[in-house]
Structure formats: structure tokens, C-alpha cells
């Protein structure tokens, strides 16, 4: 019997600049492995980031800030994303760029506070009455459509759930059937259905269906213990911004005027400090009762030198707040003018009083060996075959120009190889694309030599 392979379309998604970053690549003692988890070199910076991750996990870092400082293309954003990967998806990570605060619709401080609130999570624990088990039967029962004609409609759904202790057959409304379809529930899945709201949550595939493959997209969970009908602690993760937004835009009536009003509202609405204070009171009450737990996440502000003196002073107040996330700044500037001032110069374009609060992590330029390893890694991530000679040539281009420019040449070189009837990139392909394109330094040299031919 012929076995046909069906390829997943998920793999065809766009590969971004940092798709290969999987973590900080540290060993069990916190020392950086030269090349691991998608990162190469920068051992000191990675080890320092590892200490920051430990402080975040032990909840001793809230309201503090870290600055990643180094020349362009030395892996500052990569290290920040690696910190996010190490913390896992349960800890909020909110990336933004310094220039995002400048908007004609909303004031600068509001943009900053909104992102601060996005980076603070709230883990709410509730005890709910649920039906939980492995789906052993899922049968929609159809009846004649009330509108007449040949169409049929689902009147109810028969679902059987089984656990290690027993099984139960349930008759569910069509609305719950829609929820089951939305969650893509099928026979063999482990689910729970809330008894009061009818909300459905798919937990994964039953481990009885686990196969011998080492790597699969499916997540397998054990068969639930106890009865099908039980009380279960349900954990929900939300951010403070989610609570702000939900309370700032109440749904209102169902009449045409209120619906039109909702449609005509601008997408960005400023949330008042009064509303935030009220939400903070409720959050504090939940925390005191032990119902909820605060999870300080990470706010990553890239190109921090783009912020001005007003936003820097606002950051001071925000960092001192009782509810504050961990803030990671990144900049590639040296000593420069603080934006919003005429004559105040400071390291990295950050006021000295804020700079005193920061733990600074330095990144250094990559050497040629590191560059070649990164280029191999990028080629592997993009699914490209490349000869060692071509990698050496790209490493040389990287040292003369920049690593970013060398990485940019990979795809054009692959297309050149394809045109020449090869699947792998060879030295000739690198030389060909190298002659077609200019890097920033070469372009600047040509401008200098021919300055009389260009408009100034």
C-alpha cells in the first residue's frame, strides 16, 4: 500500500529576522554556550541577560530597568527576544519602538502607559463546575429547517465524555456545537465544558492516540482522572490593558444609534487615569483575596534615544509605581543630544538621572568566525543550501561591510543559483550578487568621489 505524504502549509510562513532565536543558550550553571538556541557569541551579554531572567522569575525585578547598548547589528533585539523565549508565553512581553509614542490621535504619555499595562499580566484562578473528559462520541442531531425548504439545521448535539473513572453522555445546545467547531474538537480530544456558561476549552489530544513519531505539532494530554462532572480550578491569563480596554468600551444597547456610535468611534481611545485607578483597586482586592496573582512582564523599548525629555520624566514615575513591569531599553547611539532639548547631551541620549537607575548590558561587534556561524544559521533557517566557500566569502563581506548586509545577500544568491540550475549557493553566486549590489560603505565612498555630480 502506497503511503502519501501531505506537507503542512504552516512551514511556508514568512521567516522574520529573528525566527531562529529559541532562547539565551545558557547551560545549567548560567554560562553561555558559544553557539546555542539561535544565538552566537555575545557570551557576557547573554550571561547578564540570564541573571535578569532569574530575577524576573523570582519576582525581584519589577519596576527596574535594563539597557542593552551596542553598535547596530550586534544582537540587542535578538537578546531581548531570547529573554522573552526563556520566560515563556505565560509572561507578557510587549515590544515597541521609541518613535511609536508620537501620534496625532493620542498623547505620548498615554501610549507609554498603554504599553506598560500590556506588559503586566494578571493570573486569575476560579473554581468552576465543568464536564471534563476525552470525547468518545460527537453526533450532531439534525431536524428540518424552520424556514422550510430542503435545508436542515442542528437541533442539538450528543457528546460522550469519558475519564479514568467513568463516562457520561450529554445533550448540548447548537450554540455549544458552534463552540466545539471553533475549537476544532473531534473524537479523541480532551476537553472541558463549563456547566454555567457553556464555554468549551480543548486541552489537547488524548495520549492514547500518541504515535511513535518524535516530533509532532499535536500536544498530547493524559486521560482526566475522577468523575466527568466535577469542580475544576480554571486559570485565566489577562493583561491590565485588556481590563482597561474592556471597561473603557462598554457594549451599550442594541439599537441602531448605539451600534453606529461604536462603529464611528476612533480606534484609539484614551483611557482615563480614574478608570485605571478603579481597575487597580479591584485588582488589589482580588490579589488580597488570593483569587488573582500579578505577573510582571517585560516591556521592550527599542531605539530608546527616540524618546524625548517629557517621556523620560514620565518613565521615572511609571517605574516607581507599585504596579510596574520590567523595562528593557535598547539603543545603538553613543553620546548624543537628548531629544526635546537644545543643548543637553548625554550617553545614549538618555538623561543621567534615568541612566543611574539602569543595569547596562553591553554588546560588542561580531568577529569573522561568529559571523560565519550566524550566516550558516540563517541559511539553515531559510532552508538554503550553501557551500563552505560561499559562507567564507559572505563572512569576508560581513567584516568589510556589516553582518546585516551579508545576511541580505543570502536570498538574492539563492535566486541566482536557481537561475543557473543549482539548488545550492556557491562562491560564484556570492560574487555575482556582490557585483550587482552596493553596501552602505561602498555607496558612501562613491558619493564622496563623485560629490560634484550629485545634488546637495
TrEMBL record:
Q: Which GO terms describe its biological process?
A: cell division; DNA recombination; DNA repair; DNA repair-dependent chromatin remodeling; negative regulation of signal transduction; positive regulation of DNA-templated transcription; positive regulation of gene expression; regulation of canonical Wnt signaling pathway
Instruction: Establish whether keyword ATP-binding is in the entry.
Output: yes
Cellular compartment(s): Nucleus
- Keywords for this entry? ATP-binding, Cell cycle, Cell division, Chromatin regulator, DNA damage, DNA recombination, DNA repair, Helicase, Hydrolase, Nucleotide-binding, Nucleus, Transcription, Transcription regulation
Q: Name one GO cellular component term.
A: histone acetyltransferase complex
**What's the catalysed reaction?**
ATP + H2O = ADP + phosphate + H(+)
Instruction: Please give the coiled-coil regions recorded for this protein.
Output: none
Q: GO MF terms on file?
A: ATP binding; ATP hydrolysis activity; DNA helicase activity; transcription coregulator activity
Which enzyme type, at the first EC level? hydrolase
Its EC number is 3.6.4.12
Ranges of residues in domain AAA+ ATPase: 62-365
As for family, the record states: Belongs to the RuvB family.
The protein's job, in short, is:
Proposed core component of the chromatin remodeling Ino80 complex which is involved in transcriptional regulation, DNA replication and probably DNA repair.
This chain belongs to the protein called: RuvB-like helicase
Amino acid at each position: 500500500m502506497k503511503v502519501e505524504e501531505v506537507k503542512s502549509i504552516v512551514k511556508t510562513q514568512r521567516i522574520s529576522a529573528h525566527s531562529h532565536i529559541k532562547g539565551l543558550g545558557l547551560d545549567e550553571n548560567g554560562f553561555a554556550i558559544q553557539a546555542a538556541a539561535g544565538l552566537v557569541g555575545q557570551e557576557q551579554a547573554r550571561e547578564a541577560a540570564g541573571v535578569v531572567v532569574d530575577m524576573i522569575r523570582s519576582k525581584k525585578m519589577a519596576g527596574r530597568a535594563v539597557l542593552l547598548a551596542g553598535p547596530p547589528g550586534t544582537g540587542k533585539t535578538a537578546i531581548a527576544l531570547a529573554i522573552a523565549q526563556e520566560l515563556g508565553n505565560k509572561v507578557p512581553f510587549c515590544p515597541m519602538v521609541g518613535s511609536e509614542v508620537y501620534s496625532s490621535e493620542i498623547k505620548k504619555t498615554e501610549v507609554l502607559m498603554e504599553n506598560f499595562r500590556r506588559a503586566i499580566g494578571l493570573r486569575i484562578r476560579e473554581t468552576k463546575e465543568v464536564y471534563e473528559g476525552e470525547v468518545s462520541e460527537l453526533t450532531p442531531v439534525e431536524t428540518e429547517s424552520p424556514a422550510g425548504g430542503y435545508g436542515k439545521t442542528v437541533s442539538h448535539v450528543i457528546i460522550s465524555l469519558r475519564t479514568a473513572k467513568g463516562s457520561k453522555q450529554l445533550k448540548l445546545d447548537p450554540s455549544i456545537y458552534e463552540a466545539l467547531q471553533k475549537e476544532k474538537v473531534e473524537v479523541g480530544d480532551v476537553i472541558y465544558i463549563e456547566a454555567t456558561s457553556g464555554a468549551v476549552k480543548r486541552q489537547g489530544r488524548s495520549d492514547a492516540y500518541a504515535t511513535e513519531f518524535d516530533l509532532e505539532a499535536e500536544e498530547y494530554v493524559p486521560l482526566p482522572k475522577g468523575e466527568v462532572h466535577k469542580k475544576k480550578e480554571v486559570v485565566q491569563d489577562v493583561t491590565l490593558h485588556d481590563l482597561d480596554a474592556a471597561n473603557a468600551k462598554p457594549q451599550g444597547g442594541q439599537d441602531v444609534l448605539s451600534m453606529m456610535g461604536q462603529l464611528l468611534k476612533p480606534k484609539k481611545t484614551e483611557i482615563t487615569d480614574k478608570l485605571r485607578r478603579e481597575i487597580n483597586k479591584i485588582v488589589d482586592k482580588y490579589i488580597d483575596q488570593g483569587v488573582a496573582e500579578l505577573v510582571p512582564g517585560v516591556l521592550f523599548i527599542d531605539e530608546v534615544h527616540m524618546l524625548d525629555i517629557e517621556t523620560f520624566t514620565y518613565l521615572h514615575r511609571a517605574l516607581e509605581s507599585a504596579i510596574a513591569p520590567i523595562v528593557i531599553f535598547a539603543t545603538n547611539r553613543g553620546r548624543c543630544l537628548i531629544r526635546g532639548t537644545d543643548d543637553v547631551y548625554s550617553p545614549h541620549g538618555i538623561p543621567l538621572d534615568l541612566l543611574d537607575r539602569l543595569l547596562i548590558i553591553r554588546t560588542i561587534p561580531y568577529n569573522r568566525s561568529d559571523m560565519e556561524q550566524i550566516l550558516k544559521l540563517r541559511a539553515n533557517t531559510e532552508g538554503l543550501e550553501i557551500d563552505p566557500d560561499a559562507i567564507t566569502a559572505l563572512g569576508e563581506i560581513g567584516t568589510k561591510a556589516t553582518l546585516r548586509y551579508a545576511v541580505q545577500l543570502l536570498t538574492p544568491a539563492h535566486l541566482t543559483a536557481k537561475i543557473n540550475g543549482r539548488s545550492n549557493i556557491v562562491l560564484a553566486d556570492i560574487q555575482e550578487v556582490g557585483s550587482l549590489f552596493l553596501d552602505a560603505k561602498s555607496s558612501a565612498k562613491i558619493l564622496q568621489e563623485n560629490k560634484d555630480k550629485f545634488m546637495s
